[in-house]
User: Fold this.
Amino acid sequence: MKEKSAKEGFSQPVLAKYPTDASCPVRWITANLDSAALAHRLGQWLQTGTNSSHHASHLLQLATVDTTGGPQLRTVVLRGAEPAAHWLRFHTDLRSPKYEEIRKQPRVALLGYDPNPRLQVRIDAVAAIHHKDPLARLAWERTPASSRASYASRRAPGEPVKDGTFAPPVTDADEVGFAHFVVVHCAIEVIDLLELDNEGHRRGTLVRTQGDWFWQPVTP
Assistant:
């Protein structure tokens, strides 16, 4: 008998019955939200982080696989997201180690945590690199001058500072900066949500199959 794939196991949305009375904290995982609505709510959560540096989703943890096969983890700034939670974007430097890591292994994971509803968001995605193309140019034009300056640095990210001094930002080398500027577009495939609650944690997984989201509650 042929075994079912992981995604086939999520063919039907199953909604758990959790309490929704006013005494409960913010409910993300609730019985009155279907799969698409829950994904849309998460998409709005991500979008808010692109506009507010104070929002919990503004900074996400990105996990990649390095050239030795080991794990690497760092913080990235969320620069774009889509209302239906189908994708998100961040920027990086062409000379950064994570560029080469993503180029060789585009499967990545991202992690966010919102302390207000005590919600952990884990995302599995496939990353695509945009460099010197229309999407990268548009993102570059929308990037503040202060942020552009870092991409024009003569030193690559992670390069040892031999003389013990940090070079001042370059403000007059716009095209040099653009040559190093990369947009990483992450197509989201799986979202794992964990809502912490003293009365009982709740967890579930959203899986995107052929453009549609399917929701499955799982044991925390």
